From TrEMBL:
It holds the Pfam family PcRGLX_3rd. InterPro entries: PcRGLX/YetA-like, PcRGLX/YetA_3rd. This is PcRGLX/YetA-like C-terminal alpha/alpha toroid domain-containing protein. Residues 1-85 form the PcRGLX/YetA-like C-terminal alpha/alpha toroid domain. It comes from Xanthomonas citri pv. citri. It comes from the Bacteria.
Amino acid sequence: EWERTGNTKYRDKIIAGMKSISALPNRLFTGPKALGFDPATGIITTECDLKLETTNHLMTIMGGFEGMNEMMRMIDLPEWRDAWL
């Protein structure tokens, strides 16, 4: 929606999600289960033990790689770059 209409509300939700994942202790690899999502703000949370870590992320092989590479060109967010790379 942000790319199509220029409505920054949607860009801000994307950035909120990127920042909240970056703030998790193990970033993309925090916990064994799905994360919570607040559709009003775009903030992503987890209720798992923050010490838990997983390396089984299908996101990285199911279009995530391509999507994130495109996203990093559109949104310059150093903490996300560190979390993703």
